[in-house]
Write a structure and sequence with these properties.
The longest helix is centred in the C-terminal third of the chain and has 13 residues, at 62-74. Helix 2 (25-31) links the parallel strand 1 and strand 2. Helices cover 49% and strands 10% of the residues. The chain has 78 residues and is mainly α. It has a two-stranded parallel ribbon with strand order 1-2. It has helices spanning 7-14, 25-31, 45-54, 62-74; strands at residues 19-22, 35-38.
Length: 78
């Protein structure tokens, strides 16, 4: 439930993957609109969020957008 920065989530986002995380300020700052958030202290929150994400219609534009956001926000070039 606690992550200092979340480098692993940035790496996943840079690969275009959907990232499901506990809803707290740091993760919202790191992932912005590209994260999927839930209160993981609630017993079924992760399962519900995972179900919601898996049942969304495929959007082939999302992986490149996730990558671009991660690159523009966290790359060494930036």
């Amino acid at each position: 439930l606690h992550e200092g920065f979340g480098r692993v989530v940035v790496e996943a986002l840079a690969e275009g993957l959907p990232v499901l995380v506990h809803d707290h300020l740091t993760m919202r700052e790191v992932l912005g609109k590209y994260g999927y958030y839930a209160n993981f202290t609630e017993e079924t929150a992760l399962a519900t969020l995972l179900d919601d994400v898996l049942n969304q219609p495929p959007d082939p534009t999302l992986p490149p957008k996730r990558h671009q956001y991660a690159y523009e926000t966290y790359s060494w070039d930036t």
